[in-house]
Amino acid sequence: MERPSLRRQLVMIFLGIAIPIGILLGLLLFFSGLYNRNRLAAAASGGLDMFTTNFENQLDSVENYLLNLSLNDATFRSLSEQTDRTRAYLDAYEIAQGFPAVLAANDVLMGVVLRSGSGNLYVGRYGAAAQQLKQKLNLEAYLGQPGQTNKMMTKGWYLRTIGQRLYLLRSVFYQKASLTAAVDLRLVFEELVKDYGLDGRVVVMNDSGNVLVGDANLLPTKMEWNSAGYCLTKVGRDSRLVVRKQVKALTVLYLVPYQHFGVDFAPYQILLVMGAVFVLLAIPFILFYMKQEIFAPMTALVSTMDRIGRGELSVRSSVDYRNAEFTQVNETFNRMIDQITQLKIDGYEKELEARRNEMTALKLQIRPHFVLNCLKSVYAMVQTGSREDAQQLILLLSRYLRYILSFTATTTPLHTEIEQCCNYAELSSVGQNDPVEVVCEIDPELSELPLPPVSLLTLVENSVKHGKMIGKTLKITITAKLLETEEGCMADLSVADNGTGFTAGDLKQLNSAAPQEENGQHVGLFNVVRRLQLLYGEQAAIAFTNNRRGGGARVELFLPIDPVLQKKEGETA
């Protein structure tokens, strides 16, 4: 699998930094805009709520005044029953004395008109903001129309257009007397609303959605209100934020200008934005610096490594680096190449030594006396007519010779070595009164464990040669266990017999791993130790002991397990 270059990884890291920062900036702008929009909507809604609440409270106050006057005032009742014009005028004048107080307390009220049907008498009082003669005359003329009393709505406020002005009226009457309060909607929503700090545009609609006050062109054909209670509209190039309130049968819309890209940051937010922008702007400069100070030196170093990989071991990195870290890497690299060159020489020498040891092992395994004895046994068996034993002996001997004469590989699987050990034990038992018995206890996971050829076979041969006793069956036990340690998995191999065992001198000499001459004792065992050390180094360990129970020699090997073998075992499991 192709591995990504460091340059690409660093670019991806910087992109991984830049993209989240950009996203965070976008989110910051979005949520800041949302926060400012909600804050603007809350301020507009608060101002509109203050105005509409006061407006509605005043309407309720006027309505309560009218109802109380019509139901509880004796003079009003007297006026409704009065036929004398002079007396009616006096009653009307007395009732009208309370109108100025009502007008002063409710600035939205344009005026209050008292009408006596019996005397065709009108008494009206008007607020300071409604001192226009034409408005007053239009209102009184409307209320004085024949049959107008029947058109009055007495169950709440109602809308009437009088003289091209839209009024909100509330009427009460008793018999022939009526009392009407008038609110000029245009005056209220175009003039008085400014006293509440509402500098935007106000549009008033009825329940049917018809615009009563304000410019209908400011509104789109359809408005979508969000959960916060406001909506954003755009008519032409103008964007506005709209909030609404309900007052009686009126829907009041307040429109304030809104800039979509207007973001009002807090001081800490400004610092965050400036920091993020600085990081984004710094990334190209950092990449350029890294190209000069990291990528270029690494390219030169890799080029030197490629030349060394092609066999030019005399090449050394001679680039003059401008930073201490790459200078240290350069010096360490050159020292490492020197060490590799020396290790290559040492490895060649070890290879020669390993070959000498292998030849020694071959010579040790081919014991002329053992082969000659086998041939003599064959001759004797043929002479005595034991042809089947002779055939078996020849077959086992051929297997033995083929194995020890034909191996060329550095290692052989454990199961192959075990088969040869059993073959040798069977070969040593043919025609003998005291046979050799081999018992194997092998962990299936170690079946493919690589071993130096004829290593376990040498241990079995040593047991047969030195441990066999007359009149007693020699039992050799071969075990292979998988051990899990903190440093990894190990293979625990042992070859034990019930023979005479090692002497104290043998144990001291064998466990000290002192080399022996070819004509000395236990040369084969020492040869196995050296071959294991060449193959596994310090990771291998071998112990020579005697069995505590039943006597006999015991040789135990501790070998590391090849990671490749571990992987195969895991797949098999």
Which helices and strands occur, and which strands form pairs?
Blueprint: H1 6-72, H2 74-81, H3 85-96, H4 99-105, E1 111-116, E2 121-126, H5 133-143, E3 158-162, E4 165-174, E5 177-184, H6 185-190, E6 201-205, E7 211-213, E8 230-235, E9 238-247, E10 250-257, H7 267-309, H8 324-365, H9 368-383, H10 387-406, E11 412-413, H11 414-429, E12 436-442, E13 450-451, H12 455-467, E14 474-485, E15 488-497, H13 504-511, H14 523-536, E16 541-546, E17 553-560, H15 563-572
Helix pairs in contact: 1-7, 2-3, 8-14, 9-10, 10-11, 11-12
Tell me about this structure.
With 573 residues, the protein is α+β, with helices and mostly antiparallel strands. 51% of the residues lie in helices and 20% in strands. It is built from 15 helices and 17 strands. It has helices spanning 6-72, 74-81, 85-96, 99-105, 133-143, 185-190, 267-309, 324-365, 368-383, 387-406, 414-429, 455-467, 504-511, 523-536, 563-572; strands spanning 111-116, 121-126, 158-162, 165-174, 177-184, 201-205, 211-213, 230-235, 238-247, 250-257, 412-413, 436-442, 450-451, 474-485, 488-497, 541-546, 553-560. Strands 2-1-5-4-3 form a 5-stranded antiparallel β-sheet. A 5-stranded antiparallel β-sheet has the order 7-6-10-9-8. It has a 5-stranded mixed β-sheet with strand order 12-14-15-17-16. Helix 1 packs antiparallel against helix 7, helix 8 runs antiparallel to helix 14 (523-536) and helix 10 (387-406) packs antiparallel against helix 11 (414-429). The radius of gyration is 57 Å and the shape is rod-shaped. Residues 292-345 form the HAMP domain. It is found in: Membrane. Its main location: membrane. GO terms for molecular function: kinase activity. The chain crosses the membrane at residues 12-35, 268-289.
